[in-house]
Amino acid sequence: MKIVLVTAFEPFDGEAINPSWEAVKVLQGREIAGARVVTCQLACVFDLALQQLNAALAEHQPDCVLAVGQAGGRAEITVERIAININDARIPDNQGKQPIDTPVIPGGPDAYFSTLPIKSMVNTLREQGIPASVSHTAGTFVCNHVMYGLLHALAQYPDAASGGFVHIPYAPEQAARHPGEPSMPIAMVTQALVSMIAVAVTQQQDAIISGGTTH
């Protein structure tokens, strides 16, 4: 049976919860499209998050990896296309570190593209009435750090697992403390993750449909 590793983060920036972990943790041990899901919570800390991720990769040797993180202010589930080799933290991480203009992996490529069928995943969610889009920036905080580190790690193996990153909006209880910010129920996010995992493990070629933007 295939193994799908799904990661998410602990709360950060003063939030009481991180909706990524709330949506992901209920998938532990679940079977989706013939694959078994294992979950892992990552620290919202530069470098430590990659250490935890690499340990999970070594332990589970997954066939597919989906990393999930919170993007407060976004109104949709956004499937990331690209990760860049830079840390440029607007705020400190959970250990007070705030790297600026440093590489995620010294000497690594400038960027990595997701190896998931990102447009098919987005299209599936839209067909289910779940707001979703392709995103062309994962930011420069710990989410991009993890996405880049994940794709770099997977690229070291000839039969690499597929992998990528998904950002999700605030949960409603968070948005209530951030007037005017959009949100999405955690149950809907979990439903979306199940659908995206099913697409990721059953579809190797991405759909040839537009996912671009004009700005």
What can you see in these coordinates?
- It contains six helices and eleven strands.
- It is an alpha/beta fold and 215 residues long.
- It has a single domain (2-202), classed as Aminopeptidase (3-Layer(aba) Sandwich), CATH 3.40.630.
- It has helices at residues 19-24, 48-60, 118-127, 142-154, 172-175, 186-202, and strands at residues 2-9, 31-32, 35-42, 64-70, 77-80, 82-84, 87-88, 100-102, 111-113, 132-135, 162-168.
- The mean pLDDT is 97.
- Strands 2-3-1-4-11-5-10 form a seven-stranded mixed sheet, sandwiched between helices.
- It holds the Pfam family Peptidase_C15.
- Belongs to the peptidase C15 family.
- Amino-to-carboxy terminus distance: 42 Å
Total of DSSP H or I helical runs spanning 4+ residues: 6
Indicate the CATH topology.
Aminopeptidase
The helicity comes to 25-40%
| Domain module count | 1
Structural class: alpha/beta
Radius of gyration: 16 Å
| Shape-level CATH architecture | 3-Layer(aba) Sandwich
What is the strand arrangement across the widest sheet?
Answer: 2-3-1-4-11-5-10
Largest sheet: 7 strands, mixed
Characteristic key phrases:
single chain; 215 residues; alpha/beta; Aminopeptidase; two-stranded antiparallel ribbon; 29% helix; globular; pyroglutamyl-peptidase activity; EC 3.4.19.3; thiol protease; Pyrrolidone-carboxylate peptidase
